[in-house]
Amino acid sequence: MEFSLQSGKEILRRTPRELDAMLRDLPDSWTMQNEGPGTWSPYQVVGHMLHCEDDDWLDRAQVILRGDHEKPFDPIDREAGFDRFRNLTLSDLLDRFTQIRGTNLVLLDSMVSEHDLDRLGRHPDFGPVTLRQLMAAWIVHDLNHLDQIVKTMSKQYRAAVGPWRAYLPILDSP
């Protein structure tokens, strides 16, 4: 599929609703469990997504739009949301993510057009990147973390499914 900003925004608009439908009002046994060391719980994933929504996607787009293509983006601390939001409930995180995503989509509509998508920025690890690549990464980032949440939750029942595990590849996926 070729990248389309308009089509991609449909994913960005839906993500808060999907997270809310999947996670709101579930017991901690579903939302606070991870898969083991070095993995994240659904609660932590939402905290990470909120942190990125606050401090990553549009900040980097603004750098590109200003024409600062030689100055690398500020690095993102992938786990900063864990500490930053540790006193918030999952419902608080979901509400805040929904509000900030809505604001960011309005800002995105006002600041980025199709003719801006080939403008360059500089990623601290990858070097030159386009605004198109940044926007595509934002969309796939959402999908990646929705997948991560589903896998983490599914794996809580790895043993409980018994022999059906053979038909449920999500239980053994990395």
What features would you describe in this structure?
The chain has a two-stranded antiparallel sheet with strand order 1-2. 56% of the residues lie in helices and 5% in strands. It has one domain: Up-down Bundle (Four Helix Bundle (Hemerythrin (Met), subunit A)). It contains 7 helices and 2 strands, in the order H-H-H-H-H-H-E-E-H. It has helices at 5-23, 28-31, 42-55, 57-66, 80-84, 90-111, 131-154, and strands at 120-123, 127-130. The protein is mostly helical and 174 residues long.
- How many helices? The count is 7
- Give the low-pLDDT segments: none
Order of helices and strands: HHHHHHEEH
- CATH class reads Mainly Alpha
Instruction: Please identify the structural class as seen in this structure.
Output: mainly alpha
Largest sheet: 2 strands, antiparallel
Give the end-to-end Cα distance, rounded to a whole number of Å: 25 Å
CATH fold-type name: Four Helix Bundle (Hemerythrin (Met), subunit A)
Trace the largest sheet across and list its strands.
1-2
Overall outline: globular
CATH superfamily: dinb family like domain
Strand content: under 5%
Counting DSSP E segments of at least 2 residues, the number of strands comes to: 2
* CATH A-level architecture: Up-down Bundle
Query: How many structural units, i.e. domains?
Result: 1
How much is the radius of gyration in Å? 18 Å
Average pLDDT rating: 95
